[in-house]
Amino acid sequence: MGRSKRRKFYGNRFLTSKKVTNPVDGTSAEVIVTCGEKKLQTSQEHFREDTVDKKELTGFRIIDTEILIFILNILLCPECKNNGLYFVQDSTFGLCPNFCFYCKNCPFSKGFASSKKQQRDSAINTIFVCALRIIGKGFTAAKKLCATLNLPAFLSKVSYRIQELKLLYASVSVVQNSMKHADGEIRNADPVPSMKCGVSVDDTWKRRGYSSLNGVVSSISIVNRKVIDMEAMSQFCKKCDTKISSSFSQKYQYANHKGSSRNVEVIGAYRIFEHSVNSCVLIYSEHFGDEIFKS
């Protein structure tokens, strides 16, 4: 049996070739791109700026400090370019600890806070207190939550009350500006500015039934369907209950209602109509109520 004829090599089927034209002499040359080069080109495309998601990260994240320290140990010192950074906590105020970087090989150090500060106050503490107030919880619930999640010790009771007062002043300012804006819309709704408008009064209280201690009554305009006035009503004042001094009670008296919660809407509507007469901004000429006013 004779030897088989030797075949010529026409190229590998796993290799691709590209013709590149030389701009100087116009000649062409074949450039062979291997599979490894293809993979490298594909991996480089994933790290291009146009393919990377540039969505800015905002907000807060909960992370274990052990994981954070493990990741930060990989970083190099920006001065001596050596591994040796260690991460410590200097101080803390509420949920905002202050951290610091130190280098073991050089005198480099850098401190920072874990939350943005507004007028020397940490934003995380104010936001946390606001979230507790929204869900109807207080200082004791905050301490229990922080202890369960192994978070830093929360604010003291005095600092917690200071944060509540800041939220109170901010919310009052926002409410007043919103109602003034709604009043302006009603006055400018017609070609001829009018001082009269019809309102619908509604109330709500903190708990179900007629035994709630706190409630609020609001008047809604029938023109733009926005709240233009409100009256907060309460049957209990903790400051008046703890302080016996009459001068203190008159200055910080928040209890402005006695009786059943069923009468909150009627009494609150009467006070709201008094506001309209005394303020001379808008006069509530018509009232659209429900059956509770018939009684």
UniProtKB/TrEMBL annotation:
<feature type="domain" description="Mutator-like transposase">
    <location>
        <begin position="59"/>
        <end position="291"/>
    </location>
</feature>
<dbReference type="InterPro" id="IPR049012">
    <property type="entry name" value="Mutator_transp_dom"/>
</dbReference>
<dbReference type="Pfam" id="PF20700">
    <property type="entry name" value="Mutator"/>
</dbReference>
<protein>
    <recommendedName>
        <fullName>Mutator-like transposase domain-containing protein</fullName>
    </recommendedName>
</protein>
